[in-house]
Amino acid sequence: MSKKIHIEVAYARPDLQKIIALEVPEGTSVFDGACQSGIENVFPEIDFETVDMGLFGKVVKAPKTETLRDGDRIEIYRPLIIDPKQARLNRAAKKTGS
Predict the structure, then answer these.
(1) What domain count does the chain have?
(2) pLDDT band at residue 98, thresholds of 50, 70 and 90?
(3) pTM listed for this prediction
(4) pLDDT score for 29
(5) Which of 6, 9, 19, 20 lies closest to 55 in space, CA to CA?
(6) What average pLDDT does range 10-28 have in this prediction?
(7) Whole-angstrom Cα distance, residue 63 to residue 70?
(8) Average pLDDT for residues 16-31, to the nearest whole number?
């Protein structure tokens, strides 16, 4: 029998945030852990094939091959509406009145 590990899956929108705790078999990938959480039932806009995922604030480049460890928290990231550099430029322009 495979050993189980405890993980969490987190997702947030401005109006709603959710963290789901679950147990998965040791050796589960980040991608599979997110899928097994059922978080898409709360947030149907999540497309696991296209969203970025991370562990404790660090983006995971290959979520289908990166394996989870006991206590990991998978974070599912929303797409950016505006590039952060452009947002800073817009704020700076607003302050100077340009």
Answers:
(1) 1
(2) low
(3) 0.80
(4) 97
(5) 9
(6) 96
(7) 16
(8) 97
Helix (H) or strand (E) holding 86: helix 84-96
Strands 73-77 and 52-55: antiparallel
Yes or no: say if 48 and 31 are a contact pair by the CB < 8 Å rule: yes
**7: Cβ–Cβ under 8 A, 6 or more apart, which residues?**
21, 22, 23, 24, 28, 33, 68, 70, 71, 72, 73, 74
Exposed/middle/buried for 72, CB within 10 Å: 0-12, 13-18, 19+? buried
Q: How many CB atoms lie within 10 A of CB 78?
A: 14
The CATH number assigned to the domain holding 52 equals 3.10.20.30
Domain of 60 in residue numbering reads as 4-96
The C-alpha atoms of residue 88 and residue 17 are separated, in whole angstroms, by 26
